[in-house]
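Look over this record as teaching material.
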Amino acid sequence: MTTNNSSADMEAKNVSDSKDNTNGRYDKKKEFFIRKSLRVIKIAGMVIGGIVLAVFLGFVFGIAVKWLWNNLMPGLFGLPVITYWQAVGLVVLSKILFGSFHGHGHDEGHFHKKRKTSFRTCTDTHNSNDDSDETKSIGSIIKNEIKKEIVKELEKEFEKKQECGH
């Protein structure tokens, strides 16, 4: 009889282990979907928060432009007073015309790229043995002229010392 009990106990244990194993898989899937859902909710919250912040800042910026315009322009230039929506229109128009309000991740401007290219040209032509002034930048030409003058002065000093020494 003890053998029947032990086999029944083993069977019950196997059934409970399989239930635990199934529950474990279920818990992992449930936890995965909960994490995924929380991540989606977090991203949606950030998007909605960003939109609300942008609308709020646009509203505040429009009020600031309206206040500045109405307090400065009529007195300085005799221009008419504007409404809130005209101020917002001015902000949008200035954005279109002048392209300001760049984010932190924007591409380097034309001036910076041009400066890098100019520096690269200067160093490349300085390192090359080509002495034509057409390929050199102004900085490189001035640098070479200064070097030539220094070499001339050093040669003069060296000749003076040679003459005095002999």
Q: What stands out?
A: The chain has two domains: 1-103, 107-166.
